[in-house]
Design goal:
Blueprint: H1 3-20, E1 23-24, H2 25-38, H3 46-50, H4 52-57, E2 60-64, E3 67-70, E4 74-77, E5 82-85, E6 94-98, E7 101-104, E8 114-117, H5 120-125, H6 130-135, E9 138-139, E10 148-149, E11 157-162, E12 166-172, E13 177-180, H7 190-202, E14 207-210, E15 215-219, H8 225-236, E16 243-245, E17 248-252, H9 256-265, E18 270-272
Parallel strand pairs: 4-8, 14-18
Antiparallel strand pairs: 1-3, 2-3, 4-5, 5-7, 6-7, 9-13, 10-11, 11-12, 12-13, 14-15, 15-17, 16-17
Length: 273
């Protein structure tokens, strides 16, 4: 699936969600599979190519109990520009920077849409660290030897077990510590949060910050979408969005105070260069 095809598939799904309202993740997955097949597009994972980017960008969100819907229209206010989420400005020069996200230098709000002044650092201050989130998951006495680890070399962090359905765990055998991860229908970010904690304690790390360039780089795999969104808010201040570079996300214009809070959340696993 190339970038043009991906945009077209996402747009069709976006229109469907705008008309039909909230849908279960299973229903959305079925629709993504159908879109890819019916348009003869190649994708190894249609839902990740088509739907999850909408969640990461903030135009769709989890509404609870495994259901997702487009987010309510919103205006993000910066010093000299504005982003309209899921609504198109009626006046001024408008640029669609991502599906459902529009950039303009003119504030018009004829429909009484909610307006928010963006402060990423303040938002991050409310986030608990990933170790505390994992520790809040249900304790488990599952036999660790039966688990299949994602980090099979270090045998630590997120692991799974295919037994009466797929279950995922966070395991640290050295201290006999194990938690069962909640299903994605309950906490869509649970897997990514646990994976980040695993990278923190294994020494792999969760990213690199180039302070002189104000550039942060993270893996594109298992980054919590809630954190991604806050980092996107930060890059939006300089009229940019996160960029994908191979298997990484690149966030430009990220301030040191924001990275400091992010590093706290990720258990001090951000490297500084």
């Amino acid at each position: 699936m190339n970038s043009k095809e991906r945009y077209e598939m996402q747009k069709l799904l976006y229109i469907w969600l705008s008309k039909i309202g909230k849908r279960s993740l299973d229903s959305i997955k079925t629709s993504c599979d159908y879109l890819v097949e019916s348009h003869c597009v190649t994708s190894s994972n249609p839902i990740w190519d088509t739907f999850w980017p909408l969640v990461f960008s903030g135009v769709a969100d989890h509404t609870g109990k495994g259901y997702f819907a487009l987010t309510e229209p919103l205006i993000l206010k910066y010093d000299n520009h504005y982003y309209y989420i899921n609504n198109i400005p009626s006046k001024g020069t408008v640029k669609e920077v991502s599906l459902g996200i529009y950039l303009t230098d003119t504030l018009t709000n004829d429909c009484d849409i909610k307006e928010i002044s963006v402060t990423p650092k303040t938002i991050l201050k409310k986030f608990p660290s990933v170790d505390k989130v994992v520790d809040s998951f249900t304790k488990s006495i599952q036999d660790e030897r039966e688990l299949k680890y994602y980090d099979w070399k270090n045998r630590i962090g997120v692991a799974e077990l295919e037994k009466d359905g797929l279950k995922r765990f966070f395991s640290n055998p050295e201290i006999a510590y194990m938690r069962e991860l909640p299903d994605r229908t309950i906490n869509p970010d649970a897997f990514a949060i646990a994976y980040c904690y695993g990278r923190a304690i294994s020494g792999e790390g969760n990213g690199t910050y180039y302070s002189s360039q104000k550039r942060l780089i993270t893996s594109d795999f298992a980054i919590p979408y809630t954190l991604y969104r806050v980092l996107q808010l930060e890059t939006m201040a300089s009229k940019r969005l996160p960029e994908r570079d191979g298997k990484h996300y690149v966030y430009n214009g990220v301030s040191a105070p924001v990275v400091k809070e992010l590093n706290r959340i990720l258990c001090n696993s951000i490297r500084y260069e």
